[in-house]
Amino acid sequence: MTVIKVADEQEIITKLSSYVEKISNDAILNRGRFFVGLSGGSVVKYLCEGLPSVSTDWSKWTLAFCDERVVPEDSGDSTFGCYNRLLIPKTKLDKNQFIVIKQGVTASEAAVDYNEKLKEAFKSDEFKFDLLLLGMGPDGHTCSLFPGHPLLDEKNLKVAAITDSPKPPPERITLTYPVINSARNCIFACSGAGKADMIKRILKEKEDLPAARVNPENGNVYWIVDDGAAAHL
């Protein structure tokens, strides 16, 4: 695990973008494609501000979601909806490069369908992402994996449905640890004093919280934190 401390949110965006540029170009050079998993929350803001300046072959990108809310794409809660509005117009990305959830079905049906779409994209049952861009909630959750939830121990499903998310909306799909911890790279980007206590609990006290369980077997995990978030480290 590598912790990168920067001054402020603007520097988080700069640092995050430089990592994405390097990892995407390495993946394209070595394997011909770049598979990236996106998150919602503040990660949307960081990426929509930073990615347009990245130098990469956008046509070689495949973008999926670490988790997604089971809502219509035009809902303010749709993570894809946010990227569709805020990122696609600023880059050469095409909507068809995003693997999106099926509309108008239950969370369980959406999870099964998403798993099939990932199989098709990876041409394999193993979903080895080049990069997962992760957020961390105030309770230490990441993706839609929440403290004390049975999904923390899911070993078989690679994409799971959750219908009782403690954070609304309740119905979501999420990648599980077998996928997360097989990624080549995972990056958390956290800003602000509001995250400082949880950052300390995870990075310093090694508390068993969902975000702390992100530990790729043969990959790297980076935490990019600003002065506010790193206050107790």
Automatic annotation (TrEMBL):
Residues 8-223 form the Glucosamine/galactosamine-6-phosphate isomerase domain. Its EC number is 3.1.1.31. Pfam families: Glucosamine_iso (PF01182). It catalyses: 6-phospho-D-glucono-1,5-lactone + H2O = 6-phospho-D-gluconate + H(+). SUPFAM superfamilies: NagB/RpiA/CoA transferase-like. Coiled coil: none annotated. The keyword Transmembrane helix does not apply. CDD domains: 6PGL. It comes from the Eukaryota. Keywords: Hydrolase. It is an enzyme of class 3 (hydrolase). Pathway: Carbohydrate degradation; pentose phosphate pathway; D-ribulose 5-phosphate from D-glucose 6-phosphate (oxidative stage): step 2/3. Belongs to the glucosamine/galactosamine-6-phosphate isomerase family. 6-phosphogluconolactonase subfamily. PANTHER family: 6-PHOSPHOGLUCONOLACTONASE. Hydrolysis of 6-phosphogluconolactone to 6-phosphogluconate. This is 6-phosphogluconolactonase. It comes from Iphiclides podalirius (scarce swallowtail).
